[in-house]
Amino acid sequence: MKLRAFGSRDDENGKGSPAPEARSEPEPDTGPVVDPRKPAGKGKPTPRRRDQERARGMRQGPVTAPLTRKEARDRRKAAEADMTKEERKEAKAEARATREERRQLMMEGDDRYVLSRDRGEVRRFARDWVDTHRRLINWFMPLALFVIVFQLIPTLMVYSQTLFLVLIAVVVIDGILLGRTVNRVVRERYPDTEDTGFGMGWYAVMRATQPRMLRTPRPRVRPGDTI
């Protein structure tokens, strides 16, 4: 009587076949090998160079404008914190030059830098018309200053009050006539414009009451010029 070998079996022809091989267990994944000689990471990604330059004010890009003065001040302080003394001096000089350039362009009437009330070809024409005409309302501020000085003198106080009332009456009457005249000439030059009415008249009156040297934008024409 023959005994069968362990791990074998007989097929139909009586021949034995080898036993299946044992499967090897997969080795556990222990992760990347860390070199103890290398320093540990700082735990956050390194910012890109262009972001660092933009934070320092060295690069201009599409950034969100600050909503408040405090936010703008905080951004400026954060940008200056990473700058050296020379970089801060250079940044202040550039900011000063930029402000001066913007101011000059605003005084020249550049629509990119003037106030919203001064923008547009129609408003530019109204300013030129006011600057080329002399009216009684142009003397409002100098006369008002004299009236204030007269009120400080007791003997002239009564006359100063009368003069002040006359001045107010002249300004009101001449201001109404000026507003109507400016609206008429604006409609003649720009018949399709909607920038007329009380807003245009008030704009012309406010400019006419200011001395020429204080008007913003700066006058481009002289009194008597043709526009």
UniProtKB/TrEMBL annotation:
Give start-end positions of Basic and acidic residues composition bias: 68-102
Residue stretches spanning the membrane: 136-153, 159-179
* Disordered: annotated span: 1-102
Return the InterPro entries for the record. DUF3043
- Could you tell me which Pfam families the record lists for this protein? DUF3043
- Top-level lineage group: Bacteria
Keyword terms of this UniProt record: Membrane, Transmembrane, Transmembrane helix
- What name does the UniProt record give this protein? DUF3043 domain-containing protein
